Amino acid sequence: MGKNINYSEDEFLLLSGIQHFAFCPRQWALIHIEQQWTENVKTIEGQHLHERVDDPFSKDSSKELVIWRSLNLISYNLGLTGRADVVEFKRSNTGIRLPRKAGKWIPYPVEYKRGKPKPDARDEVQLCAQAMSMEEMFDTKILEGALYYGEIRRRTVVQITSELRSQVEEYANEMHRLFEQGITPAPVYKSHCKSCSLVEICLPKQMRGFKSANNYLKTELL
What average pLDDT does the segment 193-220 reach? Predict the structure, then answer.
């Protein structure tokens, strides 16, 4: 545990971007490198869900549970910064100390999503990145968290495994490499492109031979 300073603060990338990267590295690059963005119904609904959850001044507690909302996160190991929707601190014989709270507490991250569980691990990767950031911040170990899906209105428990941690590290390293070099991966059309809010900017079918959406648009306008 503890902090290994692999990245300085001016090199930090948004932690939430790792979910975009896991879904599609090109989508991530269009948003975070080329600064392209558009919204569809899904992204707007997702924003509304988070607005209901994220209240930085809201902290609920009982004898066995303390809830912090909208917790700022930072990881020098991964070079990521962001915010956790909800962190539940559960009373335990081991764990960390909390301000003005007796005993020890285990952090339990909970990430809120508008839809339902995905066929891939993009949501789990984001939750794991949050857990790894909290481990670094609090000098503790987190073995489990949860994803709450608005469509099915229940949680899915996620084990923070070594395999998931390795995937987070791999994604974070590649995100930094692409960002530093200003590289946007070439388009690869897949079935999930239809639901992507950036499909009209990415143009995965039309842009064969082009990496940058800006370069494609410049060519078309000549």
Answer: 68
